[in-house]
Each structure stands twice: as C-alpha cells, then as structure tokens.
Amino acid sequence: MKITVLGMGSWGSALAQVLADNQHDVSIWSRDSKQAEEWNNQHTNSQYLPGVFMPQEVFATSDLNLAVEKSELVLIVIPTKGIRSVMQRLNAVFDQLSSNPVIVHATKGIEPETHLRVSEMIEEELTGLIYRDIVVLSGPSHAEEVIRREITTITAASKDLETAKLVQEVFMNSYFRVYTNQDVLGVELGGALKNIIALGAGILDGLGFGDNVKAALITRGLAEIMRLGVELGADPMTFSGLSGMGDLIVTCNSVHSRNYRAGKLFAQKYDKEYIEQEIGMVVEGILTCKAAYQIAKSHNIEMPITESLYHLIYQDAQLDEGIQALMTRQGKSEPSTIDHLLNLNANTEE
Predict the structure, then answer these.
(1) pTM for the whole thing?
(2) Which of 72, 156, 233, 237 is most buried, by CB atoms within 10 Å?
(3) What share of the chain is helix, strand, coil (3-state, %, to 5)?
(4) Catalytic residue among 34, 81, 165, 194
C-alpha cells in the first residue's frame, strides 16, 4: 500500500519504520526541509530519535504534494495544535491522493475552547477530500521502544469495523500487535486524558513521594477519566483496555513520557513555557488539562486531580496546597461494581 506519514517527530518516525518493515511504500513529511534532507542523506532524525538509524526505504520530503501523491492511507502524527493548519493544507492537495483514502491519526489530545477530539478536528477541516474513514491509533507505546522493534500492543478504533481491521492488517507484525475497537470516543479520550495524570505522576516523583501515592494517583486518575468518558458517551470497558489503563500505566512510569518528564519539571517549580522549551516537543497534557477542566465544569463532573493540576499550571497554585486539598476532601466510597461506575456523577464519586 502507498502510505504517507504526516509528521516526522519521534512517534511518526517510529510508525514509518513499522510500515516499512511491513513492505509498504512509505513517504514521510515534515515542515522542515533540513529534517527531511537529514533523513534522506544520513538516515537519521537527530532531533527526535538521536543515535537511531531511520529506514532507508522511507522517502522524506517537505513537499506535501509530493508526499501524498497517490497515497492510499494518510497517517497523521502531529501535535493537536497543528492539526487544523496541516489538514487545511491537505485539503488543498487532495487531488494528489488516490480516491477514497483511509485517514489514520495517532495524536493524543483535545482542543481547548472547542473541546473537540482530534478525529472531530480532522473531520471538520477535511471538507474537500472524500475519504473512506478516520481511524484512531492509540495505546501504550513509546517511540523509543518501537524504533528498537520492542514488542508493543495498541488499538485501531473506527466506527466501521472493517476499516479498523484494514488498519490492523496494515500495521501488525511480529513486534507490533494491533487490536480493533469501535469505541472511537473512548479510545481518543483515554489516550488524551491519561497525559494529565502522567503530569501528576511526574510531579509526585519529582517531589520524592513513594509508590503508595503513585498507585493512588493512577487508580483515582483512571476513575476521573472513566467518569468523564462515560458522561460523554464512551463505553466504560474501553478504559480498562490498552488505550485506557494500558496507556495510563506506561505514561505514568516512564522517562520516555514527555508528560511525566514535564511533571518532574513542574515539581521543580518551572512554568509551562520553560518546560515545553526544555522538553523540546509538545507536551499534550498541558493543553489537554485545560480542555478537560473546562469540559468537567460544563458537565458538572468532579475531577479533583485534573482541577488541582489546572490550578497549578494556569493559576500558579502551590504544589503543597494542591496536595493538601486532595487529601482533605470529604471521605467517599469506592465503587465496587461496573454497574455503579456506569452511574458516576458529581454526587456519587470522588
């Protein structure tokens, strides 16, 4: 299959290698012509994956027309804040694509203010392109491990199960296993919201807290994610899967996670501007925290961890005050059945 990857960051590069290993005809696009030249000439991507050789059979370019020419599948792996501008450019060159291409995105975020998920942003912008479907690729996956061909499992989600199965077949190999799911809403929310909890995990580790409190954060963080997801119409069982609990565990416990690393820098009392500059890549959890806080308030959903992080990031609250506020909240009961989880609301949980 002729496939185009839009985005030459660490995750886009790793997924391009997966596709090349599967014998597809792969092109990868970057805004930066120098980055594309480095890929083609040195077969490296020193900015995002230093010390790793990129697959020689993947052609890199900064020319979007050339990148998407006759492409049957377009994989979008760019930060949430760049989705609209790149989709507008894709609209302008739609005649270069094959008829009815599949659109896949592997971006984990929610747009502040509009509160749209990435698939909704793509759908809103791709008005001039007739495509088969938008599929979400999400799950517990670090580019730094995938590029070394370490075993990884993720989810391909689409309302159309046949398209999800097509994407599963395109990506799956001996080290990269793909499961299908039809709960697009739940998969996208799980992938986006876990970044908020990862910020909290980094803060706790940065402050020197132990395993007990991190276990509590992850567990109660999942409850928040599920509470918001169920309110918005997601299947609660999705959050116990790869794009929920799986992604949450890996992101809250790994130095590969930029959100976890950002949390550790917040613990050192740096502001978000310095942190994003220091990380060198977009920290999706920072913007998603704002969006989730706004959604929770509009739906009257209690999300105390998200709220505490929002106050820290956007209102300069003190870390010790946030932790104290969480620990001194009124005592609650922990739900014991999935039936109770289905009825979560502001009055019954956390």
Answers:
(1) 0.91
(2) 156
(3) 55, 15, 35
(4) 194
